[in-house]
Each structure stands twice: as C-alpha cells, then as structure tokens.
C-alpha cells in the first residue's frame, strides 16, 4: 500500500478504538519499552498525544521516564517553517493545545536537537523495514535529520507492521524500533 492509502486505513482503524482500548494498548506499549536497550541514555524526546486523533497515550511512558530520572523533552511545531523547537519538560512547563489540537509547551528551557538521544516517534502506520507513515507534514523527518546520527528512533503503534510501504522517499528517516501492544520490532 502507498502512504495515502495507509493514512486512510489507519485513521479509520483508530476511530474504532474505545477509550478503554486506547488506555490498555498504551499501557502495554509502555510496558514493552522496559525491554529496550535504551536506559543508559539521558535525553528522551516524547510527543504529547492528540487525543482527538486517538494517538497512543504517552502518559505511561512519561511516568516511566520520570521514574528512571530521565530528561524529558517535548516540542512546539511551527507550521510555517515545518520546524520543531524542543523544550525540557519540568514541573513548571505550561502545556497548551495549538490550533491543530497538539499539546505543546508554551515556553521553557530550549534543548538543541543534537542533545537528544532517544526519540519516541508518532505514526499512523509502519512497515517491516522500519519505514513509517505520519500525517504527511514532514515534521519528524526534518527533526530527525537534525539529530545526531546515533539517535534512537522508536515508533509507537497500536497496530502491527504492514509488509511494505510502496512509496518511500530517500528523505524518509527509518525507525530503529517500533513498539506495539504485542511486539517489539527491531530494524537495525
């Protein structure tokens, strides 16, 4: 399937999920993360979910990161430049939804992309080669290309891998791992 077809398919599949299923599957994904070889890292970037799009609830992962005393980074998106600015998440960070219902930090201590060691990547679908389909704006591909070469890219998905995404671009950044409620995919 191509990206357009996959976006339609997985947006429809997400619509069928109840709040209980989202919570249950999000917790299962967080529990799988414990088994990844990532815990010696310190700077973790995480997305805050767009609840209207029925994205994975990352609150469980936030608790896991906080419990392991990790530096947690969240971003603010500029839709004109398609750039993301990254901020340290602290007890004082104020979060506000933007016009697209994306929860974002209002302000805070800025963190350069080069400092980030692990990125949890939102997605609609992914394939067995580690390619992903997002919403199509290219924010994460641009952001990930600004990170160090050894940054770990971890997709989070409610659903299992597709066999192959047919229209992958050279600029598309591959994942290192993808976590679903039932499986951990390794792409290295």
Automatic annotation (TrEMBL):
Keywords, sorted A to Z: ATP-binding, Ligase, Magnesium, Metal-binding, Nucleotide-binding
Catalytic activity: (6S)-5-formyl-5,6,7,8-tetrahydrofolate + ATP = (6R)-5,10-methenyltetrahydrofolate + ADP + phosphate
InterPro entries listed in its UniProt record: FTHF_cligase, FTHF_cligase-like_sf, NagB/RpiA_transferase-like
Classification via Pfam families: 5-FTHF_cyc-lig
Cofactor(s), by name: Mg(2+)
Coiled-coil regions listed: none
Enzyme Commission numbers on file: 6.3.3.2
Family: Belongs to the 5-formyltetrahydrofolate cyclo-ligase family.
Protein name: 5-formyltetrahydrofolate cyclo-ligase
Species of the source: Flavobacterium arsenatis
């Amino acid at each position: 399937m191509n990206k357009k077809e996959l976006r339609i398919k997985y947006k429809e599949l997400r619509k069928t999920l109840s709040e209980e299923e989202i919570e249950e599957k999000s917790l299962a994904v967080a529990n799988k993360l414990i088994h990844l070889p990532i815990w010696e890292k310190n700077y973790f970037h995480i997305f805050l979910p767009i609840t209207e799009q029925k994205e994975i609830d990352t609150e469980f992962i936030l608790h896991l990161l906080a419990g392991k005393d990790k530096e947690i980074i969240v971003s603010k998106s500029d839709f004109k430049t398609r750039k993301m600015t990254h901020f340290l998440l602290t007890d004082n960070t104020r979060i506000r939804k933007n016009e697209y219902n994306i929860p974002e930090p209002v302000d805070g201590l800025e963190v350069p992309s080069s400092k980030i060691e692990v990125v949890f990547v939102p997605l609609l679908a992914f394939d067995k080669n580690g390619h992903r389909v997002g919403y199509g704006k290219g924010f994460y591909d641009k952001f990930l290309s600004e990170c160090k070469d050894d940054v770990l890219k971890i997709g989070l998905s409610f659903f299992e891998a597709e066999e192959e995404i047919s229209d992958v671009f050279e600029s598309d950044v591959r994942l290192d791992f993808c976590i679903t409620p039932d499986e951990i995919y390794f792409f290295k």
